[in-house]
Structure formats: C-alpha cells, structure tokens
Amino acid sequence: xxSRIYYVVLLLIVIACHNETKGPAAVKKEPLSLGSIDALPxxxxxxxxNPSSAEKIELGRLLFYDPVLSGGKDVSCATCxxxxxxxxxxxxxxxxxxxxxLGEHRQFNAQNDIPFTKRNSQSLLNTAFNxxxxxxxxIPEEAPMFWDLRAKGLEDQASFPVKAFEEMRGHRFxxxxxxxxxxxxxxxxxxxxxxFKTAFPENDSVSLxxxxxxxxxxxxxxxxxxxxxxxxxxxxxxxxxxxxxEGMKLFLKSGCARCHSGPMLSDFKPHVLGVAENEKLPFxxxxxxxTYAFRTPTLRNLQFTRPYMHSGKIATVKDVLFFYEDLxxxxxxxxxxxxxxxxxxxxxIKVEFKDINAIVEFLSTLNDDNYDKKIPLAVPSGLPVxxx
Length: 388
Fold this sequence. Notes:
By secondary structure, the chain is mainly alpha-helical. It contains 14 helices and 6 strands.
C-alpha cells in the first residue's frame, strides 16, 4: 500500500513539472473596438465662471468682428473664421496681419514681411462640445483647443490669436504688451464700456479676462447640431438614404471611428499620420510636443471647411480618404516621419477604394447649414467690420 501511494505522488509531481515547462497558455489578442458615433446634444454647457447670456454673446460678436483687437487694427477674429466658410476659411494656411480680401481671395499686401499662419484654420462651429466623449460627458473649462492642444477652453483660447505675431499682433507691439494695449483701446470706447457693464454686472471692468469671456460665450453659441445624421441617430430613419447608411457602416467598419468618435466625431487626442507639410512654411511643423502628432479634427460640416488636415494640403474629402487608403502601401508624404512612428490606430485603418464614394456620401450627412451667420452692421470702434 505505501508503495502505491509513493507512485501516485511521484506521478503527480511529474505532471506538475510537465505543466510548468509548458508555460502560460497563449493569450488570444482581442480585436480593437471599432468605436462609436452619435448625435450631438440639443443644448450646450458653459463654464461655471462664464454662464451664457444674450448680452454676453452679442458683446462677444462685436469683439469677434472688431479689428480693434489687432495690433494694426486691420484684422479681426472673423478674418480667419468667417460664417461663409463654416467659421473656418478656404485657404490652406490663413493670412492674418497685413492682408486684404476674404477667404480664397485673401492675399498679402504688396509690401509684406509677415508669414502665413502656422496651420489651417479650424471651424468654430460646435466648439461648445469640444472634448465630448462617447458617453456625452464634457467639461467646458477643459475643452481641448488648437491642433496641438496648447489651450483648454474657449476662454483660454481667445487670447492666443491676439498675441500671435502673424495672426493679429503684427510688428507694432511686443507679445508682452499687446494685451494691455487692446484692453486700453476697448476701455476708451464709450459704447464698449456700456456693453461690458450690461454683460458683466458683477464685474463690469474692461479686462482681457472679460474680453476673453465674451468671445468665448459668442463662439460657444455657434451651434450646428441638427444635421441629417443627428436626426437619424435621434430616431428618424428616413433622414438618411440607403447609400448613406451603407456609407456609415463602411465608415465604422474601416476603423475611422476609433479616432473620429463620439458626437463630435473626434476623440480630441493627438495622432501621428504623416500628412504632407505645407511648403509655405519656412520650417517643419512638428505639432504636439514635437512628435508630429496633431489633434483629431471633427468631421462635422466638412462641406464648408475645406481644405483639410493641419497643413491644409488635402483639397477634398475624397482625397482625405485616398490618403488613408495609401497609408498601407505608398511612402508617407511627410519625410520627417518613419512608418514606425505612425499612430497604431492609423495603421489599423482599412479604407478600401471601392468603399470611398459611399463613405463620402455618409460624411455629407454631417453638414448642417442652419447656424448663426449674423454679421454686425457696425462695430463700436468705428473700424471696418471684420477688418476686410
């Protein structure tokens, strides 16, 4: 009997050792989620310290179109974010200071030493929802702004163009002095003083902070949240055609929604794509933290906001899809980026040539032309509205 027990124990030890030598079982790799997309909310939230009001929005509108905010009083926020272009612009790179004209007709004055702006002008439509996740949650104060995420919230963002040399500041003032100059100018205008007292009764001073709050309130009010896609996602199954719903399925199947996700069709994160640089710049634009990554733009209202990508080097929506189709075979357009540097999610995208037309059809359903296009007839400074 003891010998039988001995052999059983020995057998168990051998089995245990054999199992140890085999090591852990191979872990099955889970497929990546394809992501999800949804309709925009019916209303937007404002920061706790800058609640929206009609008076604040209208003050922000006047400031938005008033060239008094620029160093040479010749350019306004609206120069690069005009309602005719979905509050974006139809140029690859914007022309700010020392320019004339609007949109694709805008050009530098004959005598010029001002560079183009660094990146393509993004739309201000629906920026109230920047940072919104698939669950509909977002924090207005922390909304990611700019291609390189260097600002949080519309109020923070508003002062950057005023201080930027090529956008609004120009030669006349140093970066550290322009804010004080702009505040002094606005405070010297009787009509603005009256409007600030109405919009900010608790703190009616004309300050850079209150100017930024008014601009933020106006830009946040620029909503286009009732596209045919929104209507479809809210339950109207007749809002999209059969071809458009097929395009939506192919958009998801291709993996585009891994980055272009949620109600804004953007994850608001930086990704390395290897997009061609713009030859108008005298330097290489290395983007977010010098990694050549740029924030995912929204896909809403693409009809109004061409050209595309941070460098403005892709002319049409169809060409954007061709770019993604080419990622798997052709050399990258940006010579500074090796294939190994491409974002893993970009490498997973599989856009097939035969599906491109249907996906373009779907993307057209994200356009909503019913947004605020009101331009003031005059601004309190008495300068030309918009500066153009």
